[in-house]
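User: Design a sequence. Structure:
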């Protein structure tokens, strides 16, 4: 038991000595793989990496003397999109995660005047449609020809089209200054008693987009003379 304890103690000292080994490297324009082999010989640490990944990293030149493992690795991976971690007696090389693929914002275009026309599914001009800029203050109302005009509007703005007789609709301008907007009409039927004069009662049907009240008399009416 004492012999075993002494053996483990000596082995631990050996590992500790390896971990604290000072590293000396002098290489010029060589692959990382060759430098890692030198570090492995001097420290006893194994390396785990993807060969193709190291080849893509290119060559390095390094000249250090009596430096720690951490310092040597920092010099090896300097200006490389690589990082490392130590797992027990193994150094694992891995790529650095970057956010280089973030969506690119659209070019900022100067404000301009935007003209347009709003029509329904049949191409009929829509009157009284409210056209507003999403997140902005610009507002316009379509005239009898379905036309509208917005001034000083961002060319990347999103326009909102709303009215009682259409389905709400959004459209991104995407740099255009003249647009034709096709909207979908909305039909809502309301069936309720709205007239009660004392002489007779009637029901009305409201149909949108015609926006008209059509009285429909009950079959059983009582007229007082």
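Assistant: Done.
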């Amino acid at each position: 038991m004492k012999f075993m304890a002494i053996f483990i103690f000596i082995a631990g000292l050996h590992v500790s000595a390896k971990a604290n080994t000072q590293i000396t490297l002098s290489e010029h324009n060589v692959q990382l793989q060759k430098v890692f082999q030198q570090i492995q010989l001097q420290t006893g640490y194994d390396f785990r990496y993807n060969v193709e990944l190291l080849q893509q990293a290119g060559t390095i030149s390094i000249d250090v003397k009596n430096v720690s493992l951490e310092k040597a690795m920092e010099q090896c991976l300097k200006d490389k999109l690589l990082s490392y971690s130590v797992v027990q007696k193994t150094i694992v090389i891995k790529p650095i995660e970057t956010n280089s693929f973030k969506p690119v914002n659209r070019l900022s275009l100067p404000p301009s005047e935007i003209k347009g026309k709003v029509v329904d599914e049949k191409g009929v001009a829509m009157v009284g449609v409210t056209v507003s800029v999403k997140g902005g203050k610009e507002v316009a109302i379509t005239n009898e020809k379905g036309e509208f005009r917005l001034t000083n509007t961002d060319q990347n703005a999103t326009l909102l089209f709303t009215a009682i007789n259409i389905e709400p609709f959004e459209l991104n301008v995407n740099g255009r200054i003249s647009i034709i907007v096709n909207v979908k009409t909305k039909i809502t039927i309301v069936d309720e008693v709205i007239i009660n004069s004392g002489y007779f009662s009637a029901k009305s049907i409201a149909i949108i987009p015609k926006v008209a009240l059509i009285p429909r008399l009950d079959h059983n009416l009582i007229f007082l003379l």
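The chain is about 20% helix and 40% strand. The chain has a mean pLDDT of 77.
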